[in-house]
Amino acid sequence: MTSSVLEAQGLGRKYGKRWALRECTIDIPAGHVVGLVGPNGAGKTTLLKLASGQLEPTAGNITVLGGRPAGGTAQLAKVSFVAQDTPVYAGLSIAEHLKLGARLNPRWDDARARDRIERLGLALGHRAGKLSGGQRAQVALTLGLAKRPELLILDEPVASLDPLARREFMQGLMEATVEHEFSVLLSSHLVSDLERVCDFLIVLVDSRVQVAEETEKLLATHYRLTGPRRDSDRLPSGQHVISASHTDRQSTFVIRTDAPIHDPAWAVSRLNLEDLVLAYMDKHAADKRRATLEVQR
């Protein structure tokens, strides 16, 4: 396995005149479960399709596991992709799905697939169209895992599932990553699900990467400050403001800093992953509002 699972420099993809992804520069070390989060239309699916070789870049370049996405049989064999709505063929039985997987994938592990189906309590003769949404998601995940990938890409795999099915899916995914040691790139708008499983976070907003880093470091360096009203330019230079809100008497900042915070005027608290994601989304929205106002002036 290469040291980086995905590298992109100035990566962009355009549909007509609209950029779906632009100026994307990231380096994701191998061995991580990567959460890709952002609002609808932010470019998440575009990035995943570029990584899996389903799309070609308009600008920049991307390598996955040291090679060009979909660049030949050997490269294709390293990556599994599970699309939105965990697609399976309604008219095929589970056994027929496994036979199809074995025919299409040179690294196919039939024993792994059958063992997982058995542990899920599913009968091989069941047709996919008769399964529940959670069961279909588990079958799609099984197909992706049986390919024995070095990278598993999942695009909103649990968006349509109920909370119990989402938890079971995520638990199965985590058990598989521990057992078989592969990298995961998982897109979702359900940050609470990502918080339980991801150790690397990418936030995409308006087709641009806002942050891409290990979650442990992100959570260790971001704080919420609450205290008497103060302009952001009065904060120490080492405190980088991500988002700010004010009332007549009080200011609340989300900041990033590597240094201790000594000002006794501030009540200081940590952020969870959802707080952090929302702060970066708020920052982008505030920057956009300021740019609009400057143009109007």
TrEMBL record:
The ABC transporter domain, residue ranges: 6-231
GO-annotated molecular function: ATP binding; ATP hydrolysis activity
Record keywords: ATP-binding, Nucleotide-binding, Transport
Keyword ATP-binding: yes
SUPFAM superfamilies: P-loop containing nucleoside triphosphate hydrolases (SSF52540)
Keyword Transport part of the UniProt annotation: yes
Gene3D superfamilies hit by this protein: P-loop containing nucleotide triphosphate hydrolases
Name by which UniProt lists this protein: ABC transporter ATP-binding protein
